[in-house]
Amino acid sequence: MTITNHDFIVIGSGPAGRRAAIQAAKLGRSVLVVEKGRRVGGVSVHTGTIPSKTLRETVLNLTGWRERGFYGRAYRVKKDISAKDLMIRLHMTLDHEVDVLEHQFTRNNVTTLRGTGRFADPHHVEVTLENGDLRTVRGDKILIAVGTRPYRPADVPFNGTSVLDSDEIIELNHLPRSLTVVGGGVIGVEYATIFSALDVNVTLIESRPRFLEFLDEELVEDFVHQLRDRGIAIRFGTKVARIEFEHDWPVTILDNGRRIRTESLLYAAGRVGATDTLNLEACEVAADERGRLKVDPHTFQTSVPHIYSAGDAIGFPSLASTSMEQGRIAACHAFNIPLPPAPEFFPYGIYAVPEISTVGMSEEEVRRRGIPYECGIARFRETSRGHIMGLSTGMMKMIFSLKTRRLLGVHIVGEGATELVHIGQAVLNLHGTLDYFIENTFNYPTLAEAYKIAALDAWNRMTSS
């Protein structure tokens, strides 16, 4: 058997893997990407980030969601929306993403090998090809970027039609009239709100007293109010006791005895690292009970120095944006390219309806650190652009240090939140202060004016106290 040698082997072609591969190739290294899927792109392109965001955008466009502030809740762009309508745009988008990625690999001389990889020893990876043939490759450095897959407990009766995981939900052949979503994490919240925008009756079940606990509490309260106002039923603090079927419809029975019968059920209570097929024992790297790998947070090295891991396989924050950066850092470190320390804060985006985005410290974290502070609030309806868009909801919250006037955090819920947050990110990481927002001019009319409104609100509170 011929064994091919490579400077860098990347297992997985999601955001972390592809960014690492291209970075290493730009450093003049020979790079091999092993991908078990039919096409490159990983979970992000095929079942995760891109499909869910494409579905969201399609739903908002076809339903006329953004125009209902003017024309009423009954307004629709397309009266009867089918699953086929959603799939057409989804497949067009995925084809484009794959085409771009394949072109990037070709342009940078990155070799790809389609098959399932497993370690034979710390430097050798055996790849089982589609036809069953086995090929062995050797890498001086190796990056594990296999991502995650949905957590599927044995007591949940998944059937691929009415009881689905978050990978299967994007392959619906019809839209249900009602949907139960189990799990109030990012994925569950995103899909619950997307289907609600399609006028599907949605019930969201979360076992904890609140969801999205890493976000600012006041922001989440505003978000929950918006969801309940449009009819989403949210059941906090209750666990699923069991799931049964009644006339082919799933019935979710909660531990308090409540029964929720809907046409479909999405189980989105967590994901696990897709590392179980890698034969990690052969390379002396260990995974935790959820299949995730422990790495050095600065270099992304595992316990074996020449083996790295990045992306969802290492856990929080499990964002495409941070995964890309992790992959780049890992590749640079592997080939001794010095990097400056990463910025302390990165933006977090949740593509629900409405969007949520945040950067910096929450009010709860500021309190825990004992920092004297003040907050400023802006409502999108207070901006002229908000009026033009017909927005009645949406808010921005900014937190400033009383002592230094420095910006400590920006928290946004509403239209365009994931775009707006980058202004706050730049000011935060450049150690900017309240005065930046007060003294600078923003385009008019824009939602970005909310920065000035919130800053002036904080300034009024700071100067009156």
Describe the protein in words.
The chain is α/β, with parallel strands linked by helices and 465 residues long. It folds into 3 domains: 4-150 and 272-334, FAD/NAD(P)-binding domain (3-Layer(bba) Sandwich), CATH 3.50.50; 163-269, FAD/NAD(P)-binding domain; 348-464, FAD/NAD-linked reductase, C-terminal dimerisation domain (Enolase-like, domain 1, 2-Layer Sandwich), CATH 3.30.390.30. Helices cover 32% and strands 25% of the residues. It has 13 helices and 21 strands. The protein has helices at residues 15-26, 42-46, 49-63, 68-71, 83-107, 186-197, 217-229, 320-334, 363-368, 384-389, 417-429, 434-439, 449-464; strands spanning 4-11, 31-35, 111-121, 124-129, 134-144, 148-150, 163-164, 178-182, 201-206, 233-236, 240-246, 249-254, 259-261, 264-267, 271-273, 307-309, 348-350, 356-360, 373-379, 395-401, 407-413. The strands form 5 sheets. Strands 1-2-3-4-5 form a 5-stranded mixed barrel. Helix 1 (15-26) packs parallel to helix 8 (320-334), helix 3 packs across helix 5 and helix 3 runs parallel beside helix 6 (186-197). It is globular. The relative contact order is 0.12.
